[in-house]
């Protein structure tokens, strides 16, 4: 799982490895409370293998997948 | 519309670049143009700012710039579009972005650059932080950037 922007600071690392498979509830259970709260924040988007999820709670990740947690962009 | 293929050059660069070196070849790649408009953004020398860092997310950022270029080609009558954006660590005075549009008529070229810049400034997949007094601070989007973007949503 990768964390972008200020969420990498919150996670303490730009990426971490999680055991698959993971659904939304499983992912939240694996993360520290502050990160689990960031997952639920509607301003933060989630991408699975580089594709944005329209409904992030529908996440279904299997071994080898990359989940990205994307905070609001600050632009170039 | 010109019958030949439209010229597009969309890039992310992780090292300093010279915008001037891009414009000559871009202009030559669009023979018969009526006008070229180029915008170059540099890291501003704000008091106390030692460095700027732009992070991106590989699967989204460049493809998002290509989507933006697609919309610019749809919205304006362009012959060519150049969009080059820095990522990584930058110092004040370094170029951060260069957008150049070639068209038969000036209004399309000028407006396309304005359109692309407003979208790059507030809707592109970049996260920015600046270093002041040895500390990094994340930068939030400015309200003015959102207002600039809203100009195109009619």
Quick tags:
heterodimer, A: 76 residues, alpha+beta, Ubiquitin-like (UB roll), four-stranded mixed beta sheet, two-stranded antiparallel ribbon, 28% helix, B: 154 residues, Aldehyde Oxidoreductase, domain 3, four-stranded antiparallel beta sheet
Folded structure, characterized:
The complex is a heterodimer of chains A (76) and B (154). Chain A is of the alpha+beta class and 76 residues long. Chain A has a single domain (2-70), classed as Ubiquitin-like (UB roll) (Roll), CATH 3.10.20.30. Chain A has helices spanning 6-11, 24-30, 33-40, and strands at residues 2-3, 22-23, 45-48, 51-52, 60-61, 67-70. In chain A, a hairpin with a 2-residue loop joins strand 3 (45-48) and strand 4 (51-52). Chain B has 154 residues and is α+β, with helices and mostly antiparallel strands. Chain B has a single domain (7-149), classed as Aldehyde Oxidoreductase, domain 3, CATH 3.90.1170.40. Chain B has four helices and eight strands; from the N terminus they run E-H-E-E-H-E-E-E-H-E-E-H. In chain B, the strands form two sheets. Chain B has a four-stranded mixed beta sheet, sandwiched between helices. Chain B is globular, with a radius of gyration of 16 Å. The two termini of chain B are 24 Å apart. In chain B, 31% of the residues are buried. The model of chain B has no long low-confidence stretch (mean pLDDT 94). The A-B interface holds A 2, 4-6, 8-9, 47, 49-52, 68, 70-76 and B 41, 54-55, 57-60, 85, 96-97, 120-129, 138-141, 145.
